[in-house]
């Protein structure tokens, strides 16, 4: 585990969990107990760590445009190696790949497109879903489901999870709408947006009304703002919506949106989820 030194203790828990160190000239990370799930670290924290490894490359240009993370196996406790490679670059885009491995075995990898955004015609046909202000919605109480859940505040406007001892006779809606923030407030940036895109509880939990074994297999997030716009927004919470279209033969889809309180669509996300039910 990453020991808390005088330097790391001053970091936000999220920044400590996704911290990159250099050992013998190569980047490494450490799985954080604070963001552990059932059998390994929360996928959002792993995804953010992979993105941070790219963002800290000295020859990186622009901001992340899209990131796809494939979670091949649970990341075990302890440290892991990161192999970062620039695959292709043009004048305005870069294509990156980063692999996370432990004991020589790849547990996760990501591909990312970075871009230098330039002024252009803009249009947002999507409309922010209606919701009471963040501070008018009560957070759900600590459920103790997993460590990573305690690192966030979930304020459900619609579709709060209701788990029972047995599945519902008739599946409920998989849709939910909630305000989301770090438990310890932290200004939203690309890393936290990517992690938050995986914070939506598995849609099968909502549809069946019970917790079953699940795991994110592949997560893709597209960002719709650059670094300057995120910094200017200066926000610590986003409104998120999530839904699913199908559950079939052990896999389901999941889609989501992350909105600023001012009504700007900041990111859209989709993923494939394994389930056992």
Report on this structure.
Strand 5 (93-102) and strand 6 (105-115) form a beta hairpin. The chain has 6 helices and 13 strands. It is globular, with a radius of gyration of 18 Å. The chain has helices spanning 6-9, 13-17, 43-55, 190-196, 203-208, 227-233; strands spanning 21-23, 26-30, 63-71, 79-89, 93-102, 105-115, 152-158, 176-182, 214-223, 237-243, 247-248, 251-259, 265-275. The longest helix has 13 residues, at 43-55. The mean pLDDT is 94. Strands 1, 2, 3, 4, 5, 6, 7, 8, 9, 10, 11, 12 and 13 form a 13-stranded antiparallel β-sheet that branches. Helix 3 (43-55) packs antiparallel against helix 4 (190-196). By secondary structure, the protein is α+β, with helices and mostly antiparallel strands.
Keywords:
277 residues; alpha+beta; 13-stranded antiparallel β-sheet; 6 helices; 13 strands
Task: Walk me through the topology.
Blueprint: H1 6-9, H2 13-17, E1 21-23, E2 26-30, H3 43-55, E3 63-71, E4 79-89, E5 93-102, E6 105-115, E7 152-158, E8 176-182, H4 190-196, H5 203-208, E9 214-223, H6 227-233, E10 237-243, E11 247-248, E12 251-259, E13 265-275
Overall average residue pLDDT: 94
Largest sheet: 13 strands, antiparallel
Give start-end ranges of low-pLDDT stretches: none
What level of helicity do the residues show?
10-25%
How far is it from the N-terminal to the C-terminal residue, by CA?
33 Å
Structural class: alpha+beta
* Residue share in β-strands: 35-45%
Helix count? 6
General shape = globular
- Radius of gyration equals 18 Å
Quick one: how many beta strands? Answer: 13
Order of helices and strands: HHEEHEEEEEEHHEHEEEE
